[in-house]
Amino acid sequence: MKKKKSSLLSSFLVMVMVLSTFLMVDNKEADAATVTSNASDDATMWGTSLIGPTATTMAVNVGQDKRSYLKFNVSNSGTITSAVLNVKCITGGTANIGAYAGTGNTTWNQTTLAWNNQPALGSLLDSKNTTFVAGTVYSFNVLPLINANGTYSIILKGISGSEVTFSTKEGTTIPNVVTTTTTTPPPTGPDLTGYTLLRDYSFGTSRNTNSLTALTNSFNAYGVAGTTVINNEWQRYQPINATNHHLTSTTLELTATANLGGVYDGGISSGQITTKETFYPYDGKTYIFQLRAKIPKKVGAWPAFWLYSPGGAGSTTSEIDIVEFFDTPTQNTYDWTGFDHGDGVFSDYYSIMTNQWVWHPGFDFSDDYHLYTLIWKEGNLQKWVDGTLVKGTLFRWDGPAPQVLINLAMGGNTNNNPVASSFPAVFSLDYFRVYVK
Fold this sequence. Notes:
Elements: H1 5-22, E1 33-46, E2 49-51, E3 57-60, E4 66-74, E5 80-91, E6 93-103, E7 120-132, E8 137-141, E9 150-161, E10 164-167, E11 176-181, E12 196-202, H2 212-218, E13 219-220, E14 235-237, E15 245-247, E16 252-256, E17 268-270, E18 272-275, E19 286-294, E20 301-308, E21 319-324, E22 340-341, E23 345-351, E24 370-377, E25 380-385, E26 388-395, E27 403-410, E28 425-436
Parallel strand pairs: 14-17
Antiparallel strand pairs: 1-2, 1-4, 1-11, 3-10, 4-9, 5-8, 5-10, 5-11, 6-7, 6-9, 12-28, 13-18, 15-16, 16-28, 18-27, 19-24, 19-28, 20-21, 20-27, 21-22, 23-26, 24-25, 25-26
């Protein structure tokens, strides 16, 4: 973009001012740190024999002495105050199954496990006496064993009842241990001192935005495009409803499903919410927009959190993408994107972007919830992920003040076309908040 020489000097001075005021942010946000550790190895021992070291299921059967062995490498910050083993049932049955500490050898792996190197059966950590149902994830408290970082073995052994099988890491759902600490983790966004919480939409039936009525009171299902299809997307956004806007006790799940005819352009319904009010940092104000959410990992999924004009007089091409994730031949859920559009986009004064399009920090964003933040002061944007400032941009908004949109698109433009296994796709929202000062 070409600029006049005088504007270059002005931009430089603005940049210096921005750096001096915006980069002196003291990150003080603290919360419990939750880390998911997937099984590094898992296998079934039938008596003294290893069966199916690369099988997709592992078995527990008290009558046949079938035991499932799992190994985890746990690393979390601070003192671990909670540790939970999660395993998905594949073949159900009525049984009492115990999770035991595996003692002794921790160097075993699923291909070399044998009668003479298997961990010894230690103390009972937790048990489930129930009718296990296929497709359900069951949780065992393993804190008595896992109370610090290290390598651990857990043995699932039948106490009574019939055979039950669970998914291995080669199966549909990797077994995992979720640990929580009370130590301050890396900060979750910039310091909010001095800001007023203007809007708090904590989603879920047990929280303040707890029904479809509450959702409808604050949000519309459509943005400026209405029901018009944009970007050649395959989904069709629906009025706020229980299928595409599914409320759990603690989340709102924007859900895409192929219930309008099938997996083709127009055969897919999905959910979107847009604020009924608009926002612009007039009169020296600064806004902070935050969304804590977990993105889907599905072919063709395109979740987004962004600002756009609601239309009307003076409509503009200005657009702020706080975050979006594409599924293309070159981008996936490892690649954060936060692009800005319009004539008012100037230079980045700070950036840790991997290239001009994405930030690739090396982890899969779909594995967990993350906090996506925009700080907007007139002439300036900052985009954060959790406690990391990703980029700061000199920016001018043109046209009417924008509304905030959160949506789950499927397919479209360079995105991969969805397939049958793409559905249902769920964009899970914990909360959306707006701060101002």
